[in-house]
Amino acid sequence: MVVEMTPSAVDTLLTESGSGVLSLADGAETYAVPESFGYDGDALYFQLVYHETSRKMAFVRATEVATFTVYTDDPAESVLVRGRLERVPDADRAAASAAMADNAEIPALNVYPDTEAEDLSMAFYRLIPETVSGRELTRSDGEAD
C-alpha cells in the first residue's frame, strides 16, 4: 500500500540522500537531469557545472517551476519538491557550499568529458520549495517495504 510520508520522514530522506533528478521545462518541452544536491532544511542546493552552449542552463533560465525527485528502492520511498529555482547570490554562497558538503554525493560532476575544465563554468542554484510531498510503499502489515 502506498502512504504519505510524515514531514519528519520526508526531511530524513532529503537529509540522507545526496542525489536525485532535477526536472526543468520550457513551455511544453521538458528536460530532466540527475544532480547531486545539498539540503539545509529550508532549500535544496545544486552546484551546476556547464558549458556556454549548455542545454541544461537554457532550461534553467526558462523554467518557472522546477521539480526535484529523490527516491530509494529499499525501502521504496520518494519525495517530490516543486518550486522556484534561483541562482544563489554571492552573499549566500557559503551556505550553499556547506549544504553541498554535508550531503551531496558528487559535489561537482564534469558532464563534459571532452571539454577542458577551464572551458566550464560553475554556479550554485537553490530550489525554494513551494510544495513538498513524499510517499512510501508499505506492506499489508503496515511496515515499510
Automatic annotation (TrEMBL):
Record-linked SUPFAM superfamilies:
FMN-binding split barrel
Question: Highest taxon of the source?
Answer: Archaea
A single Pfam family it belongs to is Pyridox_ox_2
InterPro entries noted in UniProt: Pyridox_Oxase-rel, Split_barrel_FMN-bd
Which protein are we looking at? Pyridoxamine 5'-phosphate oxidase
